[in-house]
Specification:
Layout: H1 2-24, H2 31-38, H3 45-48, H4 51-62, E1 83-87, E2 91-96, E3 106-111, E4 116-117, E5 124-129
Main location: mitochondrion
Binding site for Zn(2+): 96, 98, 118, 121
Pfam family, one: COX5B
């Protein structure tokens, strides 16, 4: 009985291996690759971007950051080189973490005009007008 089961299993494995070998010789359809290459290749990010993504990509090529998504430039915080704070109005609430390991935030109003100092640490901040891109 056991030898009969072994022979049946061997035949089943042999049939499976034969079928796999026959099917592997057929070329696989590659219509998607042919279609992409026929129309000039795979489109770049710039070619297929739409909406907000397209505006951001175009702005980054010009070197601008219309939605403030890039890391801001670091400033010394001195009177000659104050931290720049963009605003669409003539005043803005600013929070200063005066020391790196400090957990408290010092909040104060920053008004347009001359650079102003943080009341706690003395770092300078300057409000500059900012135009929205839309």
């Amino acid at each position: 009985m056991r030898s009969v089961l072994v022979r049946m299993a061997a035949r089943l494995l042999l049939r499976s291996a034969t079928r796999a070998a026959v099917y592997s010789r057929r070329p696989l359809p590659s219509a998607a690759v042919v279609r992409g290459l026929a129309s000039g290749g795979i489109p770049t990010d710039d070619e297929q971007a739409t909406g907000l993504e397209k505006i951001v990509l175009q702005a980054s090529k010009k070197g601008t950051d219309p939605y403030s998504i890039l890391k801001p430039k670091e400033y010394a915080g001195s009177k000659q080189d104050p931290h720049i704070v963009p605003s669409i109005t003539n005043k803005r609430m600013v929070g200063c973490v005066c020391e790196e390991d400090n957990t408290a935030v010092v909040w104060f109003w920053l008004h347009q005009g001359e650079a102003q100092r943080c009341p706690s640490c003395g770092a300078y901040y300057k409000l500059v007008p900012h135009e929205l891109p839309h």
